[in-house]
Specification:
single chain; 24% helix; five-stranded mixed sheet; alpha+beta; four-stranded antiparallel sheet
């Protein structure tokens, strides 16, 4: 094999390696943004995601709402958080999960508030409750606002 052919083969290998690296970078960036893009943004820097499921073909007499709370940056669960729905407050368990049922007569459009001490509150847009299961996850951003103690 001549020296020119060897250089040509070497250049092709380098070009294929560069192309492979470029494809890998695009995939990594695309996948990392996918999680963020799935979140519905909110007036604070956090967000939420939701998913509907029909498990009983619309014949259910109740609506199950499940979900969890997570730190926006670390994706770690946030225990001791609460979901506010209408005049109800539903507390999460120690790992940030919640679930509650509503009467099927209450299927309509509602918004939910996700609250956790030390984090910015997330308020959903109106969500139309038309299936028998809603999975709602809150992703809260840490609140860095200083706390002032004022004495009278």
């Amino acid at each position: 094999m001549g020296i020119h052919k060897l250089k040509k083969v070497k250049m092709q290998v380098v070009n294929i390696s560069k192309l492979s690296l470029l494809i890998l970078i695009v995939l990594i960036i695309g996948c990392s943004k996918k999680i963020q893009n799935e979140l519905v943004p909110n007036n604070n820097s956090g967000g939420y995601s939701f998913e509907f499921k029909n498990t009983k073909n619309g014949m259910s007499d109740s609506l199950l709402i499940t979900g969890g709370f997570f730190d926006l940056k670390t994706r770690q669960p946030l225990g001791g958080s609460s979901v506010h729905f209408y005049c109800q407050k539903i507390m999460t368990d120690s790992i940030g999960n919640f679930n509650f049922k509503l009467s099927s007569g209450l299927k309509s459009d509602y918004f939910f508030r996700g609250v956790s001490i030390g984090y910015k509150t997330v308020i959903t847009d109106f969500i139309s409750l038309k299936s028998d299961t809603l999975k709602l996850n809150f992703y809260l951003d840490e609140d860095t606002t200083p706390i002032y103690h004022c004495e009278d």
